[in-house]
Amino acid sequence: MFGRLAGYEDVNDAERLCHDPAMRWVVGDRAITGAAASASQMGRFETKWLSRPENLAALADLPGQWIDKVHRQRPPKVIVLDMDSSESPTYGAQEGSAYNGHFGCTCYHPLFVFNQLGDVERCALRPGNVHSANGWRAVLEPVVARYRGTVKRLYFRGDAAFASPEMYEFLEAEGIGYTIRLPANNVLQGRIAYLLKRPVGRPPYEVRRFFASFSYQAQSWNKPRRVVAKVEWHPDELYPRVGFIVTNLARPAARVVAFYNQRGTAEQWIKEGKGAIKWTRLSCRAFAANAVRLQLHILAYNLGNFMRTLALPGPAERWSLTSLKTKLIKIGAKVVSHGRYVTFQMAEVAVPRQMFQEILSLIARLRAPPAPA
Length: 373
Prior knowledge:
Elements: H1 2-5, H2 14-17, H3 21-27, H4 39-50, H5 53-73, E1 78-85, E2 88-89, E3 98-100, E4 105-108, E5 111-114, E6 120-124, H6 136-147, E7 153-158, H7 165-173, E8 177-182, H8 186-191, E9 208-216, E10 225-233, E11 241-247, H9 253-261, H10 264-277, H11 287-310, H12 321-329, E12 334-337, E13 342-345, H13 353-365
Parallel strand pairs: 1-7, 7-8
Antiparallel strand pairs: 1-5, 2-4, 3-4, 5-6, 8-11, 9-10, 10-11, 12-13
Helix pairs in contact: 4-11, 5-11
């Protein structure tokens, strides 16, 4: 995990990292005086041991357990869950690899659940040709179970792939507020026909937005539900941009749309995971081994995000994971070994001495108090 967070996403990198002084101290124990795990040891550990079903299931639960520990330091009153899928391009005859027409490539199709702080609550690797919402219950249900009775309000946001009666009924049974994009159809278009006529007068130079809220029941639904519509007229565009959202929130229509639009941050976090952690680097032949690699990448991502949200002072709070990696983790240092300790001498180019001291102080505050004697 530490190697992946530092930008060494391949098992082959362990051949050099096992002798790296900083990595040996991070690993601790016998690695301090000897060497950390070699590339062959890491490969066997991932493909032989962690890929066993019971170990892979425990690995999938680990991000949630870590997040629960973080929440003990900073108990949340509200949790917002964003579910989204992404692609991990594949090459060669990898098990589970398939062509996905939406992404236009041969890939895996993983599914993620984020919270509003950017932590990955849970994820699952899936074959490349499955629907975007395939297996959503197996990913979302354990996350909801962890928060059941522990937070005051729980919300869910998802795109049109998750617009299904099964999803609505599950969220309503759990008492979860939701906003989910709803695919357009003729009935929905007819309900807002009065907003689809071009406004009278000279076209303005700014965007005009109109909102509507109404009750709607599709044939597959067991009851009517609230639908919020947004119509945007853009300058130099002949037709309006129209979107529909199904929700059980009682907020005004404009606030429902604003709340749903915030799910765009989940797409940004996926981009960070791809760029900074390289979690699309799934190069094993076996599907289970690649599932292990994805889970390890997610743990590395969460570790970096915990540091960003809990242990960075004000000037560095808005750092991306790439900035965090290049300025604080993957940096050069002079190693001076003494009889009883080792000193890492670092330049103040990226991180000044004062900021580094503040970071260490914030990390120290996260440590659990010593147990009573």
